[in-house]
Each structure stands twice: as C-alpha cells, then as structure tokens.
Amino acid sequence: MGAQSFNLSVNRQPSYTNHLSVNKDVRGILFHEFATNYLSKCRKTEKAKKCYRHALRHFSIFCNMNNITPMTYEISMEMMDDFVYYLQATAKLMSSTAFNCLVRLKTLLRMASCSGYDIDYSYSGVNVKVDEHDVITLDRDEITQLYVFDGLTPSEEIVRDLFIVACMTALRFSDFSRLREENFIGNMIQIKTQKTGTLVIIPQSKYVRSLLRKYNYQLPKCPCIQHFNKVIKTVCRKAGINQPVPYERTIGLERISKMVPKWERIGSHSGRRSAATNMFLAGIPALRIMKITGHKTEEAFMHYIGLSKEENAATLAGNIFFH
Q1: Each residue of 274-312: b (16+ CB within 10 Å) or e?
Q2: What pLDDT digit, counting tens, does each position of 83-142 carry?
C-alpha cells in the first residue's frame, strides 16, 4: 500500500504519477466539482446520494490533508492507494465501510469518463479486502424460545413479534415493516419487495398466523431500523439468547477477535438469514428458497445462510447415502 507517500503533516502537494500519455491532450475537470454537480443532477435515490456524499467527504478530508485538488485524470493508482490507507489508518473505518467508500469513488470516476472527461484507469487496480462475516442466525428452538418469552414491555413485544415474522418469512426490514392486511391472502403473504421490485409469495407459518390473529391482521407500526436493532438485542438478552459467539472485525488496521454474547450480534437482518437457514435445514431445496430471498445464484445463497459444519453433517446424516 502507498503508505510512504501519505503524510498527515504534509504541507506540499505529493507527487503522484499520471499514467496517461504525456503526449495526449487530456480533457479534465476538478474531480470535486464534477462529483458535486453529478450528485445534484443524477436520478439516484436520496439514500444512495447520501452514501456517495459520505465517501466524497472522506476524499475531501484526504485531499485537504495532502494539499491537493485533483483533476479527474490525476486520480491515479498511487493516489487511490493512499486514500485507502487514510480510510484505514486515520479514519479507522471498518473494512466494509472503507470498501464502500472506495467503490463509490470509483463509480464517480467512471461517471466522469462517461461524461467525456479523461481519467487515469490505473486507479481500478486498488481494492479493499472485506471481512468475511460469519452469519449469526437463530435456530428453530431459539425462535420458539423468543416467541413464548413473557417478560417484555409492550414496545419490546411489538419488536419481538415483528422479528418473529422476519424469522418465518425471510423478508427484509424494508418489507416486513410495511406488511398490511392486503398482503395477507388466504394462507399466503404476497408483497413486492422494495429492494428489487420482485413479487414474492410466502406461506404463513403457524407463528405468523398466530401473530396475525393477535393483531387482527393489522401488524403494529414498526420503529425505525436503528431503534428496532437496539430493541431486538434487549429482547434477545432478556429471553436468554446469550451463548458465546465469535466476533471478528477489521477496524482501521487493527484486527479484533473476541467472543460476545449472541444477543449482541442480533439485528433485523438476522431474522431473514435465520429463515433462509432454517428452511434449508428443513430440507427445502435452495432454488425454492431463492424464490423468496431473491438470490440469483446458488453459490451466493450458500454464502448467505448460516450453515455450520455441525449442522451440515447432521443434515447429511439423514440422507439415505449414509444409512
């Protein structure tokens, strides 16, 4: 990594290599000027624009630290390499956050190229290694443990019940949080997913049917995802879902590895992953589950579910091959 050329106390412009031909008349624009104008006019959602502006803010800080105002064609492999080092060593971002910042900056450069400005394509060789997150899911016994637990406040009970719906449907927060009476047709749930716009049809499990009757088919309004994730941890802690599980993350340049109570690792997305994992362990073919989760390839789906070696062995043991 280009750590040698990156210095927080630099008072002069670093010397970065431009990999474009010196004999070529390049057409460029100040990168920050292009990025700002592009984000103000493009048709991306406000949520997406916010993510791009977050990455751009980090790049602005990096540029200010190094006293540089790069043109689009001046952002080379060396500059991008030093930007990644800033994200890790100075901003101390988690590997996934650093990766997302880099991806969005690369996208802005490609948009500059599409707009007719020259860029130095050597930047594309710079990458951030992202942690392979171990998947934390609840098995069917833990879901039952959570479902029958009686010791919650009314607001906690609402979050618990909605989480149970997620655990039995594999719906994302953006979808289970907006389920309404019109989505319950017979013994099925039908909803067009917000992320992909795909219609999914999911059978109602006995727990879901019971919860629908509890709320007279009018599920309570869901709090925002940040509040939901905070409360579901409290709910799981109270319900005794506290066995130690591994926590491994790269934050900045430091690798953190420790054991934490399982409830600390539970969030809204754990419900979706738990559903997919438990369906698979129950013998439902992956391709049928993918009709609900929206995964395009079986390989991607198998990385998504939380199937331990022990669970895999137990499933194999039930196959006629091992009898």
Answers
A1: bbbbbbbbeeeeeeebbebbebeeeeebeebbbbeeebe
A2: 999 999 999 998 889 999 999 999 999 999 999 999 999 999 999 988 766 678 999 999
Residue 169: Cβ-neighbour burial (10 angstroms; 0-12, 13-18, 19+): buried
Supply the DSSP symbol for 257: E
| Residue pLDDT, tens place only, 159-173 | 999 999 999 999 999
Task: Find, among 105, 239, 98, 86, the residue nearest to 161 by Cα.
Answer: 239
Beta strands in 42-113 (DSSP E): none
3-state secondary structure (DSSP) of residue 185: strand
Rounded to the nearest 5 degrees, what angle is found at the Cα of 62, between the Cα atoms of 60 and 64? Answer: 70
Instruction: Tell me the residue length of the chain.
Output: 323
DSSP E strand stretches across 59-217: 184-185, 188-192, 199-203
